[in-house]
């Protein structure tokens, strides 16, 4: 995962440096690229766009990029005839090496959405790519009726497409370079995370009936839906009280392509099939993890594991098949949401069970690095950005510090500091 560092220059301007580990490995060589030639906003926008290209390339240098120079074309390049946005966009998506089949399918779908989108009575992306200027990108960002986070995700794809178009000689500049939505605005536009109280979850688990145990395991471990529904009985160690997360459901590609790792491909059988999905690696390398479970979870899992085949799914649909997310939503989640509303419990998403798990851990004093490892976050920054505001290091801690000073005692070890690290 790449990250950005900002530095003040001697002329009081701002330079942005993108850093990453080659290939994403913890001990791999550190790489960096600096953007400092433009205005502060331009440097940050270019760094953000380059960071996305690095991550799309699997934490390698983007193909064709020369450090300190960008995408460089040779002097003997010949004239490149104009091409449509859709043609260049598809060419760009299909040449990205580090994309899963499901990701490639999603990007191509996003390209189709863009070409069909009407902004100010015109399809601004349904034209030659060199006819799309910065003003069209701004009009799209202003008028497209989508959440800011969605527009930011699409903007990242657009930045990559136009950077690739510059490399191929289709355009002379990237119209997205100065238009990236600011992170602060994106965060402000997102809804607050939903955390269930112990009583609210108890009501939900009771009303969920047969699915209540799956909800309990989820809130007790923080697993994602695609992880908890991919668990096999062999992933549960009742004696040691652990759950191993080494696979998750992934979307198939355009023509049913899959990306199942070799070790798992040898174990997958017909009973592990699911329409439109296949078993693959978890979301990130650190998402492959083993976590401890509470004694209550161990007791809950006994009847799901004992006497069953090692490669049976822990949780299945009423027909004995793997649980499909859309089927679960229609069969379980929609009826449950209605019952919860009748019971006076505010609505929540399945993923909010993961958030609730973290909220409970923080309330109990668990350090953030341990929570990061438990959730499978690639970076502690993700954990802090998402859940740091839950740390009780606010007015109570400040009051303790002031009280210590006013009592004539030395401020230091005597003051209780919230344990960010173990």
TrEMBL record:
In which domain of life is the source organism classified?
Answer: Bacteria
The cross-references to PANTHER family, in alphabetical order and at most eight, read:
PHAGE INTEGRASE-RELATED (PTHR30349), PROPHAGE INTEGRASE INTD-RELATED (PTHR30349:SF64)
* UniProt keyword annotations, A-Z: DNA recombination, DNA-binding
Q: An example of a Gene Ontology BP annotation on this entry?
A: DNA recombination
Name of the protein this chain belongs to? Tyr recombinase domain-containing protein
Which family does the record claim for this protein? Belongs to the 'phage' integrase family.
Q: Does the UniProt entry include the keyword DNA-binding?
A: yes
This protein's species is: Aeromicrobium flavum
**SUPFAM superfamilies in the record, alphabetically?**
DNA breaking-rejoining enzymes (SSF56349)
Give GO MF terms, alphabetically. Answer: DNA binding
What lineage is on file? Bacteria, Bacillati, Actinomycetota, Actinomycetes, Propionibacteriales
Tyr recombinase domain residues: 181-402
Bilayer-spanning residue ranges: none
- Tell me the CDD domains matching this sequence: INT_ICEBs1_C_like
